[in-house]
Design a protein that fits this description.
disulfide bond, 605 residues, mainly alpha, 3% strand, Sel1_AlgK, two-stranded antiparallel ribbon, Fibronectin type-II domain-containing protein, 27 helices, Sel1-like, Seminal Fluid Protein  PDC-109 (Domain B), Serine Threonine Protein Phosphatase 5, Tetratricopeptide repeat, Kringle-like
Length: 605
């Protein structure tokens, strides 16, 4: 099935390339490094290695002439890729792909792995799985019992009795595998420091580990380092070095590398601008499951940038991204995004600083980044305020205990106590929390009537959770008669309060024509709003901070990527920085034309 998917992906890509008139695209071949996890093998006499033209993949030996299997994708990438293919395969009516797919599957069935021992006492004999060694059965090659860590197998069931064995890899392959394991260890050390620290000096130290792992060709480390070099995050900004890493990642089939290379060609950073090449790399990235690539393609089809304008194509890409964003949102409505416009900030310095209460921002950050330093600070603040009789703090403590995290253990009983205290004081957040408890039976028996009652009380006071949940109850007919008109009413109210899930639900209703006249245009605008509240929106504040710190080059690159994703405020800010000639990273002849381009894109939204 994996090879069928790969072939379908290539066919889709061909269609995308043909559609981009005048496109020049070089064929890319992925030479993805095969990394093997080392496990702790039998101490025997050393033997000579005999190269048999084979390579090791996850403990198995394949003939070099055979085709390599793709590396397994993570669940998110798999679903993203499959959804796009299903939506796009209908466009391939003119191609008879069934014969090609069937032939490919037949070839795949004919090829089977050859598990042959190298050297040892049974050179050339097939490995026997499972085999018994030290009273333990092994279903694959192992390194147990060997000090050098090389993988081996037995060629009969009982190793102790027959002493028949051989290596599963050559010495060169073994060294490469151990090197990749060392790189993985260095990468994990760097990520641990990066995730657990909030100090700039420690984050810079973390990137030194990642830099070392990247030099050892560790893919994930190269991804982190390449983006850090692109934006100037904890490493000195270097567009040329980041481009070289992106090209290397693209050759290995990295969707993040492909998306980033598309961005460089779209913005003309480090390369000659080419919208055709940008579209090819964005398409590669999207087929690999990269959500930012999907978002960029969604915006391009919506605005008709480098492609024919297509609402339905935009809907396909935006809905896929919105599904992931919505699944990552808590019932508080998601992260708070401060969309600061640089021209306004220059005219009125500090005008954005009072937009939101600092402690409320901390809570939203806690929800979005569970386990972060902000979580502990928010928890301590709400505890103090709750002890002082603040009903809002009691309700938010209830939410923390209800949702659970590394800092606050999940506890329905404690959550219920706080929700009740807050609700008794007329707090809408507490009332909504009680409604959730009765709706899902958290600490109390399920009672739809009481759930409806508390949601209505919260909704009457304008709390978005109450409005959203009322809409959901009417939409699904839970505890009430199904009523799409009422659902639409409450989803609209919740969306006015900025709840992402309300935008998402409204988008689904307009996309499918449920309870309303189907409108692709409305659905796309709503899904776009949801997508723009994803975690990547935090880059807006990072870019703003870079600008405030006087690093216009870093700020403009960050704003340019966000502009590609369709953020109107990022387009305005990128245009402003270019207009002011504050970014030396963009060529002098390119500055004003690019500024005009982004002013126009922002104005059209």
């Amino acid at each position: 099935m994996g090879r069928r998917a790969c072939l379908a992906a290539l066919l889709l890509l061909c269609v995308a390339v043909l559609r981009a008139a005048g496109m020049e695209a070089a064929d890319e071949e992925g030479n993805q490094d095969e990394s093997l996890e080392s496990e702790a093998l039998p101490a025997e006499d050393q033997v000579k290695d005999r190269s048999t033209g084979t390579r090791v993949v996850a403990g198995q030996i394949f003939l070099e002439s055979g085709k390599s299997d793709s590396q397994p994708e993570d669940e998110e990438s798999f679903h993203s890729q499959e959804e796009v293919k299903e939506n796009s395969l209908g466009e391939l009516n003119s191609l008879d792909v069934s014969d090609l797919l069937n032939k490919d599957l037949e070839d795949e069935e004919m090829q089977s792995p050859v598990l042959t021992a190298i050297g040892g006492t049974a050179d050339g004999e097939p490995c026997h799985f499972p085999f018994l060694f030290m009273e333990k059965e092994y279903a694959e090659c192992t390194a147990d019992g060997r000090e050098d860590g090389r993988l081996w197998c037995a060629t009969t069931y009982d190793y102790k009795k027959d002493q028949k064995w051989g290596f599963c890899e050559t010495e060169e392959q073994s060294n490469k595998r151990r090197q990749m394991q060392e790189a993985e260890d260095i990468y994990q050390t760097g990520m641990k420091i990066l995730n657990e620290s909030s100090k700039k000096a420690q984050k810079k130290e973390a990137y030194q580990y990642l830099l070392k792992a990247a030099e050892m060709n560790h893919t994930k480390a190269m991804e982190k380092v390449s983006y850090a070099l692109l934006f100037g995050d904890y490493l000195k900004q270097n567009i040329q070095s980041s481009k070289e890493l992106f090209e290397k990642l693209t050759e290995e089939g990295s969707p993040k590398g492909q998306m980033a290379l598309g961005f460089l060609y779209a913005s003309g950073l480090g390369v000659n601008s080419s919208q055709a090449k940008a579209l090819v790399y964005y398409t590669f990235g999207a087929l690999g499951g990269n959500l930012i690539a999907h978002m960029i393609l969604g915006y391009r089809y919506w605005a008709g940038i480098g492609v024919l304008q297509s609402c339905e194509s935009a809907l396909t890409h935006y809905r896929l991204v919105a599904n992931h964003v919505a699944s990552d949102i808590s019932l508080t409505g998601g992260t708070v995004v401060q969309r600061i416009r640089l021209p306004d900030e220059v005219e009125n310095p500090g005008m954005a600083s009072g937009m939101l209460e600092e402690d409320l921002i901390q809570y939203y950050q806690f929800v979005a980044e569970k386990g972060d330093v902000q979580a502990q600070r928010a928890f301590e603040y709400f505890n103090q305020a709750a002890n002082a009789g603040n009903s809002h703090a009691m309700a938010f403590l209830g939410k923390m205990y209800s949702e659970g995290s590394d800092v606050v253990p999940q506890n329905n009983e404690t959550a219920l106590q706080y929700f009740k205290k807050a609700a008794d004081m007329g707090n809408p957040v507490g009332q909504s929390g009680l409604g959730m408890a009765y709706l899902y039976g958290r600490g109390v028996p399920v009672n739809y009537e009481l759930a409806l009652k508390y949601f209505q009380k919260a909704a009457e006071q304008g709390w978005v959770d109450g409005q959203l949940q009322l809409g959901s109850m009417y939409y699904n007919g839970i505890g009430v008669k199904r009523d799409y008109k009422q659902a639409l009413k409450y989803f609209n109210l919740a969306s006015q309060g900025g709840h992402i899930l309300a935008f998402y639900n409204l988008a689904q209703m307009h996309a499918t024509g449920t309870g309303v006249m189907r409108s692709c245009h409305t659905a796309v605008e709503l899904f776009k709003n949801v997508c723009e509240r994803g975690r990547w929106s935090e880059r807006l504040m990072t870019a703003y901070n870079s600008y405030k710190d006087g690093d216009s080059n870093s700020a403009v690159v960050q704003y340019l990527l966000l502009a590609e994703q369709g953020y109107e405020v990022a387009q305005s800010n990128a245009a402003f920085i270019l207009d002011q000639k504050e970014a030396s990273i963009v060529g002098e002849n390119e500055t004003y034309p690019r500024a005009l381009l982004h002013w126009n894109r922002a104005a059209s939204q």
